[in-house]
Write a structure and sequence with these properties.
Number of strands of chain A: 20
Strand content of chain B: under 5%
Shape of chain A: elongated
Distance between the termini of chain B: 66 Å
Distance between the termini of chain A: 65 Å
Largest sheet of chain B: 2 strands, antiparallel
Radius of gyration of chain B: 30 Å
Largest interface: A-B, 82 and 102 residues
Structural class of chain B: mainly alpha
Helix content of chain B: 55-70%
Strand order of the largest sheet of chain A: 2-7-6-4-3
Number of strands of chain B: 3
Strand order of the largest sheet of chain B: 1-2
Oligomer: heterodimer
Shape of chain B: globular
Radius of gyration of chain A: 24 Å
Order of helices and strands of chain B: EEHHHHHHHHEHHHHHHHHHHHHHH
Helix content of chain A: 10-25%
Structural class of chain A: alpha+beta
Number of helices of chain A: 11
């Protein structure tokens, strides 16, 4: 047996408790112990206990910061995993509890990021000091930032079915988490990494619209009411503000780079080539990626001036997140039930940086959009439909 | 290497909580006789002296020699305990409001009454165990130097830790670290950070699993009956169970002592990693001090100079509405804070209100405020006010209030980047006049001290607090 000579430096690690620490109250400890007692697997029991301490502390903290918010108390089963998901003000929060060890990474099960059911809008790291009965909202990460990081770093899951997310990806200011929960619409954020490239994209040719199995529909009519339906939310569509630049909108640096500004620039360019978008139109966008390539698809809809029967218009614009030129060979196709309506392919000769196409249909008509990424992948999206009668819960 | 007098000068708590130093003549005479060649030297080899003294107090040695050698060691320990308290004071004392004299009663508790060293007193003293006794009994010169060992036991002292935690200073115990570490983490840390072999890592994982089986379960049982506080070192009974488990699962035949030592080794390795991880982040400068606050704003202003005009425009356009919404937000957030503080014990709510006023309307520092609101330290005021959060809440409430007034604004809140940008604009607008104050302060250094803060935020808050205090 080897003896370990105690290093004197190691001993000098008393620490200041951060002023923003939250004391875990005796009744919360009691509650957490009780919750953990329903778990029989000893290895899971301790994590459940720590999770319960963290979640109860987090709930109290948020309640104090935003008294109007309603924080549900999860059950023992919900707390028994590596992470715990809470739904608060329409946001899904994935809470990850870190104990007294401190680490450079946090473990998150793959499904808490990739499954459309379990993925969250916001990922929050809680630090629990069980011994001191203190906890801290340490860091957080929104799903869109997660997506960006994941794309940049090409993070792979570990063999135990979890991702080890580096803490350097996270934002260490919990005040901006409160800002999101207080002021942001949940629809502004995607859910986790859904759909993962493997789910959304296939190297096979796109399925033809005629293959008749129940497909989820994207209801563009909801956009006009400032809403996204479940399908759109799961597929990471992001709603855009109305195209008219409001008088109140200032143009600071931060905003010039924002997606809104880019979208408006695109509309101005389209206007120049004769595509008019009426002020009442609403749109959304999503990014599609495969290999090293990311393209951004904008979809705008509006109701046509009433003629004989009500009609809707769908304008599709394929661009890139940076606004740069769409790579040569990338192809945009739009079909209806019967035939191919539009086909546009990026080629170096054209002046425009983007591809676009516009279709008009009755309220019962649907459109299928396919994007050939020109690198072996073809993306088929759920059909666009227009149903103003539908209400989204 | 250290000073020789430590071996016969005994530091103890005197009457009225005062520190007293006493020279133990018998210990001095003994020491000078044993280590004659060292007499007159200013710097002596502590490690070798302590090893020899430690040998002399082993049970097979003659009783007089044992007694004298023990006194020398206890003198040394008392000096080292004092040093440890001094270190804590230097590191945390001023911010957390304590001095070494607050710490002495917990750890400087040894009694060395050489005049009463007859058998009767000795047997009386059996029930009393000072920290020094504990240190001597657990000390093993093979494992650590005596000064290190003393520091370790002082830092892990249960009552001392409870006192420090109350003042906002804590030390995580080995046992808490082991509780919260998963086998997966151990594998990664030992391989990547400590570069251990696969076999060593395998053993560590077995050890951790066995420890978890026993210690975590017992900790939860203790929690169930209301036992709280620092995790105590595992008892010999617990160590026995861990050793038994290891024999079964990993065919390791370790004694109770060996098991304890291996657990401490693992904990130390994890602690080293923990220090590395926590030390890696940049130190967070407190923005709560009026001076620092101005600095932060000055930095902000410098960074955003090019957008300053736009911000002023933003403010000018909304001025009236903005002010009304700001007042409303200040009232809401102050009210929310008060009602949540009122649910807590004591007069925290009153302390909060007063501290908020002293900081913003009188420009006092957290340290000055502490004594006026009945708290001991700057740290406690910082934790009571949580100013960074307070300001964030006011800002965000303001955004919401503005949104309700300006319907068109609502649509901007669907874009996270825009939302963050707006939040920052408001932050800058609230601090609008700080830049001017900074210039004044540079010209005339005494201006910023002990005068009301001049930012819009502070002025409106003071206005609100004035009207609030008029109310019954």
């Amino acid at each position: 047996m080897t003896h370990f000579f105690v290093d004197s430096d190691v001993l000098l690690d008393s620490e200041s408790l951060p002023p923003e620490s939250i004391a875990i109250l005796p009744n919360q400890v009691e509650q957490a112990v009780q919750i953990s007692q329903t778990i029989t697997d000893a290895a899971v029991q301790w994590q459940t206990y720590l999770n319960a301490l963290g979640v109860l502390g987090f709930a109290a903290w948020l309640q104090e910061r935003v008294p109007t918010v309603n924080v549900p108390v999860p059950s023992a089963t919900e707390l028994a995993g590596t992470t715990c998901t809470l739904e608060i003000s329409g946001f899904k929060l994935c809470l990850m509890v870190m104990g007294s060890l401190s680490d450079t990474v946090v473990s998150v099960p793959v499904e808490a990021i990739e499954s459309p059911i379990n993925a969250a809008h916001l990922y929050v790291v809680l630090e629990v000091q069980e011994e001191q009965e203190q906890m801290l909202v340490k860091a957080w990460l929104s799903a869109d930032q997660l997506l960006q990081q994941q794309q940049a770093q090409a993070l792979q899951p570990d063999s135990d079915g979890t991702y080890s997310l580096p803490l350097t990806w996270f934002d260490f200011n919990p005040d901006s988490l409160v800002l999101y929960l207080r002021c942001l619409q949940p629809a502004a954020l995607p859910l986790g990494l859904t759909p993962s490239p493997q789910l959304a994209l296939s190297a096979q040719p796109a399925p033809t619209p005629n293959t008749q199995h129940p497909t989820p529909l994207l209801n563009a009519a909801l956009w006009l009411r400032d809403q996204l339906d479940t399908v759109a939310q799961e597929l990471a569509w992001i709603l855009l503000p109305p195209p008219v630049a409001s008088a109140m909108r200032s143009t600071s640096t931060a905003e010039r780079d924002s997606t809104t500004a880019q979208f408006e620039r695109l509309l101005r360019e389209l206007n120049r080539v004769g595509v008019e978008v009426p002020p009442q139109a609403r749109g959304a966008f999503r990014d599609l990626r495969w290999g090293g390539l990311t393209v951004r698809l904008y979809a705008l809809t509006w109701v046509m001036p009433l003629d004989e029967q009500p009609e809707w218009s769908l304008l599709l614009v394929l661009s890139t997140p940076s606004g740069d030129r769409v790579p040569t060979g990338v192809r945009l196709q739009v079909r209806d039930q019967e035939q191919l309506l539009i086909e546009r392919t990026a080629n170096p000769e054209t002046e425009a940086n983007y591809l676009y196409g516009r279709v008009i249909g009755t309220w019962s008509e649907q459109f299928w959009v396919t994007i050939d990424m020109a690198n072996g992948a073809t993306v088929g999206l759920p059909p666009f439909s227009f149903n103003p009668e539908e209400t989204e819960a | 290497m250290g000073s020789i007098v430590k071996y016969w000068r005994f530091v103890r708590m005197g009457t009225l909580g005062k520190r007293q130093v006493e020279e133990i003549a018998l210990a001095k005479a003994f020491f000078q006789q044993q280590f004659a060649d060292l007499v007159g030297q200013t710097d002596v080899p502590d490690a070798s002296i302590q090893r020899q003294l430690w040998q002399m107090i082993q049970p097979n040695e003659s009783s007089d020699q044992r007694q004298y050698a023990e006194w020398c060691l206890r003198c040394y320990i008392s000096n080292q305990i004092e040093q440890s308290c001094l270190q804590l004071e230097t590191q945390f004392g001023s911010e957390h409001g304590f001095t070494r004299y607050d710490l002495f009663p917990f750890v400087l508790d040894d009694v060395l009454d050489v005049r009463l060293r007859d058998k009767a007193t000795a047997s009386n003293a059996v029930s009393y165990r000072s920290l020094a006794t504990e240190i001597l009994e657990s000390f093993d010169p093979v494992k650590a130097g005596l000064s290190t060992w003393v520091t370790r036991l002082v830092r892990h002292h249960k009552e001392l830790n409870a006192f420090l935690l109350e003042r906002g200073v804590y030390l995580v115990s080995d046992w808490a670290i082991l509780n919260d570490t998963t086998p997966k983490q151990v594998q990664r840390i030992l391989a990547d950070f400590h570069s251990l072999s696969a076999a060593e890592i395998q053993t560590a994982v077995h050890l951790l699993n066995a420890y978890h089986q026993v210690y975590r379960q017992d900790r939860l049982k203790q929690r169930q009956v209301g036992i709280k506080g620092q995790c105590a070192p595992p008892t010999s009974e617990q160590l026995q169970r861990i050793a038994t488990d290891l024999r079964k699962t990993a065919s390791l035949t370790w004694s109770v002592e060996a098991t304890l030592s291996q657990l401490q080794t693992l904990a130390t390795q994890l602690r080293q990693y923990r220090i590395y991880v926590r030390g890696g982040s940049a130190p967070v400068e407190s923005l709560d001090q009026p001076e620092n606050q101005s600095l932060a704003v000055a930095m902000q202003v410098a960074e955003r100079d090019d957008t300053q005009d736009e911000q002023n425009e933003f403010l000018a356009f909304y001025r009236d509405l903005f002010l009304r919404c700001l007042d409303q937000s200040l009232e809401q957030v102050t009210g929310d804070r008060l009602s949540s503080l009122q649910r807590k014990k004591g007069d925290t709510a009153q302390q909060f209100l007063l501290a908020l006023q002293l900081f913003h309307c009188r420009g006092q520092s957290m340290g000055e405020i502490a004594s006026q609101v009945g708290l001991q330290a700057q740290y406690q005021v910082t934790r009571l006010l949580k100013l960074k959060e307070f300001r964030a809440d006011v800002r965000q409430q303001l955004l919401l209030n503005l949104r309700d007034r300006i319907l068109e604004k609502a649509k901007d809140y669907t874009d996270p980047d825009r939302l963050q940008a707006l939040d920052q604009q408001i932050e800058t607008a609230l601090d609008e006049q700080i830049a001017t104050v900074m210039q004044q302060a540079e010209a005339e250094t005494s201006v910023a001290k002990n005068s009301p803060l001049a930012s819009l935020f502070a002025r409106r808050l003071c206005h609100h607090l004035d009207t609030r205090s008029v109310k019954p």
